[in-house]
Recover the amino acids of this structure.
């Protein structure tokens, strides 16, 4: 029986996850790995919520004024929020007789009728239990209903059926994050990035998760990579600013630059963070006198 070595750094983690992925071609459930001591995991909050003080955000965007517009609340994950479903261009095709059902489910997701969407996708899964698209879309509906264990089950099934769809690994990672399973979230998000290394959002999400896990250097690299791939990702700038505020000594100018870049890109202002930046700047000016 294979045993997994204790992992002490982020690069080793990535190597283990990628190697494990090669060994699980026919059974692609998220590989379990051993992790070092970490910061205590807390239950992840909704993207639009803030706790006491400034904290990492999965989405830092301002809520849209138009009620029909995409908001942080339904931004899971960006790129699929218009219909909330995966299409046939990235997975197994659907039989012609089920395409009207798929369209009905997509329209229900677009109208935020997630209960109806769940019922529709359950019919699809009953008809096609080994179709990764049916499983993934049911998982999306379950996620929107905040039934994270059910969503995890469906996304696990989806990646077991077809481990080559990066979006399903990303979705699975975010479900693990919602449940407070940082270790499994890191594993799933790493698999997603291995399949789609140019996905800026995937690097953002991995940066947030490893940051909460306590790996600040790895978080910084992932957030910087996200910005390198897409400099308009407000969330990456916001979280990078927060990381710079937590450095010793505080990298106040970098924190200021990335925070206000995030605001310019549409991030929701954080008064507590602004106060912290100004306090750090004042302290830095005193130390130079």
């Amino acid at each position: 029986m294979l045993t997994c070595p204790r992992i002490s750094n982020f690069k080793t983690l990535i190597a283990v996850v990628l190697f494990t992925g090669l060994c699980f071609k026919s059974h692609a459930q998220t590989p379990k790995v051993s992790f070092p001591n970490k910061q205590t995991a807390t239950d992840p909050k909704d993207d639009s919520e803030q706790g006491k003080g400034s904290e990492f955000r999965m989405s830092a965007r301002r809520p849209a004024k138009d009620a029909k517009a995409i908001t942080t609340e339904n931004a899971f994950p960006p790129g699929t929020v218009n219909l909330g479903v995966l299409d046939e261009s990235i997975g197994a095709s659907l039989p012609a007789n089920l395409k009207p059902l798929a369209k009905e489910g997509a329209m229900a997701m677009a109208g935020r009728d997630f209960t109806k969407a769940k019922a529709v996708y359950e019919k699809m899964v009953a008809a096609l239990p080994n179709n990764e698209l049916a499983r993934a879309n049911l998982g999306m509906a379950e996620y929107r209903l905040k039934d994270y264990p059910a969503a995890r089950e469906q996304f696990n099934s989806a990646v077991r059926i077809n481990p080559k769809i990066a979006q399903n690994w990303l979705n699975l990672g975010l479900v693990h994050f919602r449940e407070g399973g940082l270790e499994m979230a890191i594993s799933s998000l790493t698999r997603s990035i291995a399949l789609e290394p140019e996905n800026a959002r995937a690097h953002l999400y991995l940066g947030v998760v490893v940051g909460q896990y306590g790996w600040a250097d790895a978080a910084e690299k992932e957030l910087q990579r996200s910005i390198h791939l897409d400099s308009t990702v407000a969330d990456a700038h916001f979280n990078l600013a927060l990381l710079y505020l937590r450095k010793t000594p505080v990298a106040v100018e970098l924190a200021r630059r990335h925070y206000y870049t995030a605001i310019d890109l549409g991030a929701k202002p954080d008064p507590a963070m602004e106060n912290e930046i100004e306090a750090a700047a004042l302290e830095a000016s005193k130390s130079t006198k």
Q: What stands out?
A: Confidence is low (pLDDT under 50) at residues 1-8, 12-52, 62-84. The radius of gyration is 20 Å. Residues 271-287 form the longest helix (17 residues). The CA atoms of residues 52 and 272 lie 9 Å apart.
